[in-house]
Amino acid sequence: MQQPKQHHFVPTAADERIVTLDIIRAFALFGILLVNMRFFSTPAIQAEMLGSSFSSNNLLDTVSTWFIFIFAEVKFVSMFSMLFGIGFLLFMERGEEKGIDVKKFFKRRLLVLLMFGLIHIFFFWYGDILTFYAVLGFLLFFMKGKQPRSLKKAAIITWSIIVTFFMLMASFMFFAQIETNSEQQALMENEVNRIAEVYSQGTFVEILQQRINDISIIAVGNIFLFGVILTMFFFGMYFWKTGIFTNTVDNLGRIRRIAKRMLMVGVLGLILASLGKLFIDGADSPWYFVKYGGLFISGPSISIFYVMSILLLLQNKNRLVKATTFLQPVGKMALTNYLMQTLLCTTIFYGYGLGLFGSIGPFGGILMTVGIYSLQIVYSYYWMKRFRFGPMEWLWRRLTYGKNAVKVQGLQKAQ
């Protein structure tokens, strides 16, 4: 007998949440900030195109750069993307259980997310990821009914296309042997210094103009990041449908096998990426493509390894209790904390704030990441003791479900 349709579809209640997903989301937020700190604090994109790191060469900064490169770069945006794919299926399944045509709610949810993303990318920071999720999220409707095997195949195909492209481009560049003349090199160096000056000393309007220019520069590269995100959307849906997150205990052997295989793939990718990083001397270097080909191998695979390792670690009840206490609130407020990272970092580094852009090296960036994330742990803990949702989560739900649903579970004191 078909379940009768309900009048309102409300946000997920506290007792319906899957704790491990919130904890993994919290880990992803830390890693995302760790990687993004370089882009918040330096003209990293233009410097890499020049073949420069725009940071000091002291030992601490060198070690810090390699630490972030090996353990974090592309890994945590991949992890966050996998969680988005899981969240899509969880959202759809929950609505269908209540007899609701949930597609219109998810489409509205994506449009609201797109609005947040566009405001974020144009008025705060060019490195926004929300617009990507909002645009690509519409493609998930075509994959919803697919069997796990088809989702896994789609993920591998999408992943292979990206990596193959970069390896082919590297091969072509090795034969083409394009060289940058000294005049072009000098112009690029001047441009990097100019950009650093704009972000560190410029007004809000001047920084806005530079940000729009930066968005146009990274637009082509973002096409390939689209591929990584889609790959992880599909992997997330695949893992969800195979019951790894809902029936972890019965899947421990499989989780261990996946972790081992992904680690082996990830190490191969890291070797390629590291070779590229060692020999790269600009965006027209073949090693540039070797580096990113390796990162696009290691990013998704190492992120899956991380997720499977977290699931295994959380089988220990003591670890689970501690992680639930300190990290789950951060994961529950993922959107708020992601945007808060931008607000704090742009205030610290940009000219209309403290103006520290270009003056903090990789080691200092790690220290700032730890400091900001520790602050997020504290305020997330106390906020979630008082309220059901983070402020941006509440607004997202308010605009998605309408005020009638929010009356049921709005921004009110937790019971």
Decide which structural class fits the backbone: mainly alpha
Q: What is the residue-mean pLDDT, rounded to a whole number?
A: 88
Stretches with pLDDT under 50, minimum 5 residues: 1-16, 406-415
Number of domains: 1
Largest sheet: none
- Mass-distribution shape: globular
Radius of gyration: 22 Å
Residue share in β-strands:
under 5%
Distinct helical segment count: 17
Instruction: Give me the count of strands.
Output: 0
Overall helicity: over 70%
What is the distance, rounded to the nearest whole angstrom, between the alpha carbons of the first and last residues? 35 Å
The H-and-E topology, N to C, reads as HHHHHHHHHHHHHHHHH
Quick overview:
By secondary structure, this protein is mainly α.
Provide an overview of this structure.
The protein is an all-alpha fold and 415 residues long. The protein has one domain. Helices cover 75% and strands 0% of the residues. It contains 17 helices and no strands. It has helices spanning 19-41, 44-50, 59-71, 75-97, 103-123, 130-137, 148-176, 182-201, 204-241, 252-279, 286-313, 317-326, 328-332, 334-349, 362-386, 391-401, 403-408. Helix 3 (59-71) packs across helix 15, helix 4 (75-97) crosses helix 9 and helix 4 (75-97) packs across helix 11. The radius of gyration is 22 Å and the shape is globular. The two termini are 35 Å apart. Residues 1-16 and 406-415 have low confidence and may be disordered.
